[in-house]
């Protein structure tokens, strides 16, 4: 009897851990980012400077996948040159040609791919990107194109539920690469006073003139931001993005910033609206 009791006590932590793991719900998020049409009623004021987004702690799923794709492309191009031997390993290729595993492949691109290739995983072991065949917004992409709108990114990822304090931000890049500039300015997007603002228009955050300008970066992208999704009885989205563009006259990079906090329901499609670009997002339950 005593031995049975000891065995039961030893198994109790394992049972609790197993129950907790099974109780953790998983979700998948799918997003489309597209460029808005030019609005003749939109007036832009670049007199405000911008505080940069702190994305040092963000998950780099998208960037890591792009880097891996570019490394694979480098290896595929180098393999036939090195040898006709099909048994030559990736390690031998990496050591023989300029295909470093930690190379700056992202900065070599002129534009972020609209759709990223990824393996069609179906597990709940770690966070991962959705493969193209797992995305469900293909009809939305076609409707955007039919309306003359330009999709910049179509991607998604699977993740476990987390409370706000533990839920990570996911870094998101989209669009074209911009040239460096010594100073970046802030776009205050405004409309004529006789035009009612849209309820879906994302809040634009102004900062005072004492804020330091963004330092020049080695690579700047048309859209650079991050998204946090967490569960607190309901699903919540925190989104922060910079939109960058080159001034046609001065050549300096100008930036529009927005952030939005929104409570959402799984399965609903949500549209985050900005005068320069739009973001469509849906969060779906995964295996529950």
Any overview of this molecule?
There is one protein chain. The protein has four helices and eleven strands, in the order αββααβαββββββββ. By secondary structure, it is α+β, with helices and mostly antiparallel strands. It has one domain. The chain is globular. The relative contact order is 0.22. Mean pLDDT is 78; it is low at 14-21 and 185-217. Pfam families: CsiV. This is Orphan protein. InterPro entries: CsiV (IPR021241). Residues 1-23 form the signal peptide.
Summarize the structure.
Residues 1-23 form the signal peptide. This protein has four helices and eleven strands. It is of the alpha+beta class and 288 residues long.
Annotation, overall tally of beta strands: 11
Report helical residue fraction.
10-25%
What is the strand arrangement across the widest sheet? 2-6-9-8-7-5
Distance between the termini: 39 Å
**Run of helices and strands:** HEEHHEHEEEEEEEE
> What is the rounded Rg?
23 Å
Mean pLDDT: 78
Report the structural category.
alpha+beta
Number of domains: 1
| Oligomer kind | single chain
Please tally the helical runs, counting DSSP H or I stretches of 4 or more residues: 4
Question: What is the percentage of strand-forming residues?
Answer: 25-35%
Q: Which sheet architecture does the biggest sheet show? A: 6 strands, mixed
- Poorly predicted sequence stretches spanning 5 or more consecutive residues: 14-21, 185-217
General form: globular
Signal peptide: 1-23
Keywords: Signal
InterPro entries: CsiV (IPR021241)
Protein name: Orphan protein
């Amino acid at each position: 009897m005593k031995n049975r009791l000891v065995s039961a006590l030893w198994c109790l932590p394992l049972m609790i851990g197993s129950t907790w793991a099974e109780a953790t719900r998983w979700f998948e998020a799918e997003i489309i980012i597209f460029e808005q049409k030019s609005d003749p009623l939109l007036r832009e004021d670049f007199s405000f400077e911008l505080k940069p987004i702190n994305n040092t702690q963000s998950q780099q799923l998208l960037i890591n996948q792009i880097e891996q794709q570019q490394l694979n492309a480098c290896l595929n191009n180098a393999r036939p040159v090195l040898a006709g031997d099909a048994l030559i390993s990736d390690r031998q290729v990496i050591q023989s040609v300029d295909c470093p595993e930690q190379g700056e492949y992202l900065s070599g691109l002129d534009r972020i791919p609209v759709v990223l290739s990824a393996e069609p995983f179906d597990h709940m072991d770690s966070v991962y990107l959705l493969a193209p065949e797992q995305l469900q917004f293909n009809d939305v992409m076609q409707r955007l194109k039919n309306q003359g709108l330009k999709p910049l990114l179509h991607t998604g990822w699977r993740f476990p539920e987390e409370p706000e304090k533990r839920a990570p931000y996911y870094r998101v890049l989209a669009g074209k690469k911009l040239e460096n500039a010594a100073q970046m300015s802030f776009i205050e997007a405004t409309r004529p006073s006789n035009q009612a603002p849209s309820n879906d228009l994302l809040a634009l955050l102004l900062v005072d003139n004492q804020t330091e300008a963004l330092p020049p970066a080695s690579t700047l992208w048309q859209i650079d931001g991050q998204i946090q999704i967490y569960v607190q009885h309901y699903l919540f989205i925190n989104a922060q993005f910079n939109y960058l563009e080159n001034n046609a006259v001065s050549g300096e990079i100008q930036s529009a910033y927005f952030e939005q906090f929104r409570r959402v329901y799984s399965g609903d499609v949500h549209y985050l609206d900005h005068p320069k670009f739009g973001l469509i997002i849906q969060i779906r339950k995964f295996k529950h």
